[in-house]
Automatic annotation (TrEMBL):
The lineage of its organism: Bacteria, Pseudomonadati, Bacteroidota, Flavobacteriia, Flavobacteriales. This is DinB family protein. Pfam families: DinB_2. Keywords: Signal. Residues 1-18 form the signal peptide. Transmembrane segments: none annotated. SUPFAM superfamilies: DinB/YfiT-like putative metalloenzymes (SSF109854). It comes from the Bacteria. Residues 35-190 form the DinB-like domain. The keyword Signal applies.
Length: 201
């Protein structure tokens, strides 16, 4: 009997000692705030736009509003995979002192439109969703899934780290805030398109 009890006890001990710290409720509320607010900002900007407005381009090198939405749908899906990878990798406290952002700076830095960044080809709009309605739905489904994850997870996101973003390491909480800031960046881009003098009325 002792031989059976000891391995079982060791298994239970390992399952709890591997990661006993849970997500801080303040961090949870912070992530939910930005994920929700940026989603809502986007849907408010898109409300009532016609096809000609959605597809208007200020110039040949600019994206239309519809293309911005497609980029967001593709990248939101990419963030989903990155969040899973980050959580699945387990704790890596050696990276704690290597973070490139302070929490209070991350939204402003990512959404800053004065800092121009060219996306990689994989995230370029290509019409893959076939219609604007499908594109928007794809974004909303993935964003809502991320919101539900944040509402319910006990994963210690402050002790999970990603080195997959181009500027350097972030922790799991910052990664999710980055996703929200990325949305806001492109919603601001949509508003710039709408402010163009030739934007269809």
């Amino acid at each position: 009997m002792k031989k059976l009890i000891l391995p079982f006890a060791a298994l239970i001990l390992f399952s709890f000692s591997a990661d006993t710290t849970k997500l801080n409720e303040q961090d949870r509320e912070w992530m939910l705030k930005h994920l929700t607010e940026t989603r809502n900002h986007m849907t408010q900007v898109l409300e009532g736009l016609t096809n000609s407005q959605l597809n208007f381009k200020p110039d040949e090198n600019s994206w239309s509003i519809a293309e911005c939405v497609e980029h967001l749908a593709v990248t939101e899906n990419g963030f989903g995979g990155l969040i899973q990878k980050t959580v699945g990798a387990g704790p890596n406290p050696v990276l704690k002192d290597s973070l490139v952002f302070k929490d209070e700076d991350i939204m402003a830095n990512i959404s800053d439109r004065s800092n121009k960044v060219k996306t990689s080809e994989a995230f370029e709009p290509s019409g893959q969703f076939e219609s604007f309605e499908n594109t928007l739905q794809a974004f909303l489904e993935k964003r809502n899934a991320h919101i539900e994850y944040v509402k319910t997870t006990e994963d210690d996101l402050r002790n999970r780290y990603s080195e997959d973003l181009p500027f350097g390491p972030v922790d799991g909480v910052q990664l999710i805030i980055f996703a929200a800031g990325h949305t806001e960046r492109h919603v601001l881009q949509m508003e710039e398109v709408m402010a163009h003098t030739k934007f269809p009325k």
